[in-house]
## 1
Amino acid sequence: MWLFGFYVRSRQRIINWNVGLFHCVYFLNIFNCVY
């Protein structure tokens, strides 16, 4: 079961990273690139 939890967390992290990258490109804000 811990493996499933790890999979869900890794997917959420990838989604958050994609959203952050979009904000970085869209707003040209360096802080959004970092976070």
## 2
Amino acid sequence: FGLFFRVWSARYNRFHDQLIVTSSSDTRVILFNIASLSSEPYGSLNVSDDSKEEMEETVNEDRLVRVFDEHEESVYTAQWASNDPWLLASLSYDGRLILNRVPKNEKFQILLRCPT
């Protein structure tokens, strides 16, 4: 999945536990969707039959969602917001705090899933 340096933190999203964010010494914050470890129903979708097959192919895979590379120093922690499931914060060695959001396309794929 592209982790080559020391990982300082790995946190799951308490609202959508398939979302994992890591911070590392290479200045990157990486967002993963690990559907195979999720407590949500695997592969359930609430979409039309025409687009269901296409959506299942992308939703059911464990994948790297996004690399956030705004930091210039080692990123010591990344945390999910307690009141917003789509917001995360990261803090680097130089004291820089950066807020990022889960990309909209990923958010909508997760929201389209329906519980069984």
## 3
Amino acid sequence: MPRLYLAGATLEDLSKTPQAFLSAQNITINSNGTIVNSGTITSQDDTHITASNITNQNGVMTGNNINLNAQNTLLNQSGDITAVNNLKLKAKTITNIASEQTITKGTNITQSVGSASNLQGDNVNINAQDITNTASNITANNLDITANNLNIATQQNTTDLKAGGGDNYSNSQSTKHQGSNLKVTGDLNISADNINIQGSKVAANNANIKSDHLNISSVQDSKATQMKSSAKGLFSSSVSATTKATTTNIASNLTANNLTIETTKEDINITGSNIDAQQQLSLNSAKDINIKAGYNGSLNESYHKTSSFSLGGLVGIGSLYTSTEDLEGRIKKTAVNSTLSGNNITLNANNNINAAGVNIQADNSISGTAKDINIQNVNNTDTRYSKHKKVEVSLADVLGTIAKNPLLLKKESDGKVSLTLATATIDKEAKRSTKTTVQLSNIDAGAGGISLTANDKHSNNKHADNNLTNQSDNNPANQPSNNPTNQASNNPANQSDSTQPTQPQGNINLTGVNLTATDGDINLTANNNTNIKAALETTNTKSSESHSKAEIKFVIKNEYAQIIPAVKAVKTAKQNLSKAKDAYSAYQQDLAQQQTQLQDLQAKLEDDIGFIEQIDIDEMSELVGDLQADKKYYQTNIALAASSLAAKTTALAAQLATAAASSGTYGFNAGIEFDIDALERQLQAQQTQSIASNLVANNININTNKTTTIVGSNLQANANNAVNANNAVNTVNTNNGQININSPKS
């Protein structure tokens, strides 16, 4: 395939002044092959280049009007293409991308992003099946983009540095994103089947973004270090290790005077990003509008271990061996709310609006319309954990002790005398606590107020209502979940076949939300139910500790004397078995009496004798059922007692045999025994606190066709407060939340 090279360049030459220079009043280049420019092409009027493939690598193209037409690919890599008037790019695939460079030195790897590519013109038109703008810039007065797939993305500067090795090292890694920038002083029009905007900036005076499916998301920068050091001596060793890591949410930012975002087939998804319009902001989705928070995170962990031997421990001076192990760590996850702002904000979804961790601020008005509207808080988590262990072993000065006083042999019960040879203590502690705090969603409007409408035309269908098994309009427990991920209608993973009942839509669910319209009104209209609830903060703590002490003893004992405690143990086991059998016999008698009484009550009810009612029968049946359920308990007790008796009897037989075997020494034996004393504790605790949802406005109007449920939340209306529902309003107080309805002007 023929190629036209206007200049050659290596990676080292990309930042240097190119050697090739082509200048003319008008430039026209036609090729059936590939055109590669690494120099300068400049025209006073028009530049037209047509080829199978066009590459501008670190090259410069300038002119009054520039028209680049590639049958296959058009690549602008760290290049500048600038038109005073019109810039038109057309190809199957158009890529505007910065260069990258990877440097490897030993075990160190660095990947860096080079100069951004730039597309600039008064009127810029870009048309392709696939368009990718990565870590590069497009600047125009008016910009039109048409594509099947449009990706506005970032490139990563990364480092992976390593020093040392083995058990002594210092490692670090980092990732930093370089985003794209689209800057339009006039009108921006984007039309594509799929649009993905990641960690980038898009700014315009008036922006109209239309797609089948749209994702606007953040990216995460990260840093991490790992350090480990160790030391070993003749009688000691130590190890220390630390790990630190952070992640930072890098938002996408879309700003305009007037901004319209629309999908024609699928969802609008916004994650950890900011959408700002000085005047009108409109989001219109063919299905769902999903808005989620991004997250920052951090990890800090330290570990230390030491061990040592002491020669003094051989003669009973201090510890012979000591070991300590300590681990401390903390993991934090902090939400970064997505934000929508403007003078007037309109959200319309043909299906649902799901928002978790969002700030919506309008100078005038906010309106939202969908089948279900679910707005809720997100949670921040802070986890702390620790583990500590200490082992200590000491030898007793046996010879010295006996030499000083032979009578120091310890006399124990059951014909034993002993002398401690060594002791060991093991102490362990572990603790883990997780605190979950609430980060509220906030919706704030001016004089135009807040209006949320949830309306599904099928929700009042009587057939749909009949399909709701165990549904009670007055029972809050049967109301739709406040969590969008738990909505059967929202989450495909929760969908089942058509035979399963479907939850009616037309609900407004607000959990952990502040709605504020101090100079305007709040209007909530739901075709089904409205639920306003508090969010929960929790603190979970789990801890455990164990303290063990072991002694190694030299023991002299008389085996005949050991027979007596063995006989006592058998006797006690027999008594326990007898008690278990007696308890079971009494239980059987009681059960038979209650069953007879139940039959008598049933007969009297059937014969209408006395004042027996069905509720009496039900209570007696429940009592008999509970007694029948206790049968296994008594049978298990008998089995355990029988097993204990068998074990004690076996132990007695073994002791008799041991005594017979030691008859030659008149029943005396000498040997080593281990004596272990252990204490274990475990603690698990949970604390909860509710964080109220708050509605503050001049007037608050809540209109539902079914039930309005308000739990642990505050409603403050400075003028009037009206709550209208076909069913009674459920007002529920919690330990941590009180419903307040204040209306100074009624």
## 4
Amino acid sequence: KKTYWGIFVNQINGYRWPYDVFDRRWDPDYGKYGTPKKTSLNVTENSQPSFGLPMPVMQTAAYSKEIVITWPGGVDHSYYLFLDFADVLLPSHANSRQMEVRLNGQNWNSTPVYYCRSTVLYSRAATTDSQYSFSIRSANPSDEGAVLNSFEVYQVLQLTGYKTHPEDGLLSLLFLIPFL
């Protein structure tokens, strides 16, 4: 299964350690989500908590009128989504642009996107749907359109049958695994 997707320009292989301090594997999308663009400037991580996004991942982005990410779900499957944004092209009219994100046609979230500064949108709770379709659009249709540097999808696994020492109390093991 794929783990994390980045938009890499002229890159055949993905990135891992030492670029990613959490040793996530970032695979290129080969233009699947839009036209890839790149900057040689450093992209500042602008989110708390820090997600440790690798510089080579954030220095590339896909641009399109609309960016759509889909995957099948199910009643027994729940997921967390992380969307990573930073403009790598100097915006033509403002310091920031507004991205609107929809989940299955419904408003999900929105965020400003800045030139060479990262912004991360993420699920606050795991979601369970039969199908997932996230669409990203710019709130201002006259600008460069939607932008996305990378995304991460984690499937929640409930592990059963594992017991802790009785004095430790009850423990419910929740693991997040990369999905796509």
